[in-house]
Specification:
The protein has 168 residues and is of the alpha+beta class. The protein has one domain: Immunoglobulin-like, CATH 2.60.40. The protein contains three helices and eleven strands, in the order αβαββββαββββββ. It has a five-stranded antiparallel beta sheet with strand order 5-2-7-8-11, with no helix packed on it. A four-stranded mixed beta sheet has the order 6-1-10-9. Strand 9 and strand 10 form a beta hairpin. The longest helix has 20 residues. The N and C termini lie far apart (57 Å).
Length: 168
Amino acid sequence: MNAKTKKTPGSKNPLVAASVAASWVTLVAATALGVAAPQLVRAQVSANPRELAKVQSSPGEYRLIVQSYAPGSVIDGVPTSRARPLASTQRAVTAAELARGIGIDVVDLEHSAANEQVIVAWLERGSANLDYDALRARPKSGAYLGVAEAHSESGAGRAEVVLSRRIG
């Protein structure tokens, strides 16, 4: 096999990619932070392009925020006022990316025993530059929101989140 045709085993499989990322994070977490087993959830976030046109009607930057919560912390798809995310991440996105679907890894280094998680994702105007990787962010009026329960597959959680509800 030459260099052009050589493939890494499982390179097309998102679970293999997630497990490799989880292995690296596990190593860092165990050595630097003393965390035995971080919790990884792979969230596949998407939205209907026609619905996104309503949100992205004017030029500007948009960020996608994805957070995981304990199941009792989310009511009617929105985190309660006292809810604390287990993990959070943010990313700059376009409507085209959301129409295709975006894979986001949400890694919880602190609450590794949390087997059940609810994934809350939302799209809002602004750059992906929030402090603490958006850990303190909450959906604001005008945000485009989606929620899904994470289901465990081979040690890593998985969630399909569709942004389908506008806040406010």
